[in-house]
Amino acid sequence: MRQDVDSEILIAGGGPAGAALAMLLHRAGRRVILVGRVRDYRAIEGIARRSLQALQSLGLHRAAACAVGPLPRRVTWAGKTRAPNAEWLLPRPSFDAALLEDLHEAGIPVIKARVTFLESQKSDVCLGLADGRVLTASWGVEARGRAAARRQFRDAAPWSTPAWILRGEAADPDPASAALSLPGGGWAWWSRLKGQQYLQLALPEATLRRARHNPSTWLAAQPDLAQLWGQAEISHHYQRPSLLGRTQVREGRLWRLGDAAMAIDPLSGQGIFNALSSAHGLTPVLHSLLEETSIAPLERFHQRRQDAQYWRFARAGRDFYRQAAYQESIGTDPAPYWTARCHWPDHQPLHLPEPWAQVRVRRGLAIIGNHLAERELVFTPDQPMGIQAVAGISLAPLVKAMQDGDHAAARALLVAAGPAAMAIIRWWADHPDWPALPEPHSLGGAPLSPIDSASQ
């Protein structure tokens, strides 16, 4: 039964990507319907502070309240143990249920149902529900995760070993987590929350085949993992696809979002951050599209933004694999697991040098509120999409003043920036090849101080 709905956009998928997009579009005054359900996927996930802050800023307060932390992010990698920052633990499916509650509270229509298909037609999109209904709207968004992307990859990592998940009870009630590389290849992320523990493993194929026959015996033979797990029995173990790849962001009237647009290496620990970032990028694209902006530059912007994120995450994972391979090579040849992953996607550094001579100011598309608009942007080798602002202050006028050698104009811009000036100065100082900024001795009579910039 075909049913036109009072919506400009249908979103398939109620995880963090779909929920964030629905909230952002709703705030922009767009009519949106989200179709999704809470899966019985009893995982624990870790997020960083910026992802938690993003959830809160989106108004997803119930979802953010599910996070437990901050906890030290303990990492034992390539023979070195450290706790470089903090993380918060999220219990799913409680987190997913809270996302849908937040949307309902905000007045966003949510249909809790299983999606059977989502297709782009000539003039609309059709979304099928398990009860036989077919919903139609002008535009659709695929946000059902990497399972929805697997047949759409433009390119993918040359390996697809599934993740192996172990679950069980935990005697210790205190929340905790740890990540570690494993001798002979592979890595693990362990977490404990609310009386349960969760262990995600990425192992060489041969090791995975052996381990699955007797998980308890295999786990007991891994000293570091066995110490974390304790004496509890393994109540459940299963495999989960961990395909890595990227897609075309648009197919007809259907747009792709989050893991459905690019499935990143879970080693990066940035899955939910990518989901939220992807939603922030697609919102102004769809908002501008519905105001009849030409589709070609909008699609090009979203594709380039997604691709840039994808390559950055892929290179971050590659560098972790290289660290492990290097450590093992000190005493012996590194395991094939590491060496096979040391060369993909390429050998380009994670961050390119940004010499002052290669900094350019030119016009390009930037996210301004809920729209995409042309602005003067600062382009560097490491930021090919361009930088519009630092600490909320447009960067191009300051760069142009320094390129012209006009220190008086640069000083005036910094003074006009007010408390944000200190954040700009610190950001600029991270580029040692760039000329030193003139010191704005005061901000309207108030001296610059770290306190002034702390809120930026």
Structure explained in plain terms:
With 456 residues, the chain is an alpha+beta fold. It is built from 14 helices and 28 strands. The strands form seven sheets. A seven-stranded mixed beta sheet has the order 7-6-16-17-18-15-19. A hairpin with a 2-residue loop joins strand 25 and strand 26. Helix 8 (271-290) runs antiparallel to helix 9. The termini are far apart. Residues 443-456 have low confidence and may be disordered.
* Strand tally: 28
Shape: globular
Low-pLDDT residue spans: 443-456
The secondary structure category is alpha+beta
Mean pLDDT: 89
Distance between the termini: 52 Å
Widest sheet: strand ordering: 7-6-16-17-18-15-19
Q: Using only CA atoms, what is the Rg?
A: 24 Å
- Main beta-sheet strand count, sense and barrel state: 7 strands, mixed
Strand percentage: 25-35%
Helical content, roughly? Answer: 25-40%
Number of helical regions: 14
Please give the structural blueprint:
Layout lengths: L1 E3 L4 E4 L3 H12 L4 E5 L7 E4 L1 H9 L3 H5 L2 E5 L1 E4 L2 E3 L3 E6 L2 H12 L4 E3 L2 E6 L4 E5 L4 E4 L1 E4 L10 E4 L6 E7 L6 E6 L5 E7 L2 E7 L2 H9 L1 H6 L2 H7 L6 E5 L4 E3 L2 E2 L2 E3 L5 E2 L7 H20 L4 H37 L4 H5 L19 E9 L2 E10 L2 E5 L1 E2 L2 E2 L1 H8 L3 H11 L3 H9 L20 H4 L3
Parallel strand pairs: 1-12, 2-3, 2-13, 3-9, 6-16, 13-22
Antiparallel strand pairs: 4-8, 5-8, 6-7, 10-11, 11-12, 14-20, 15-18, 15-19, 16-17, 17-18, 20-23, 21-22, 24-25, 25-26, 27-28
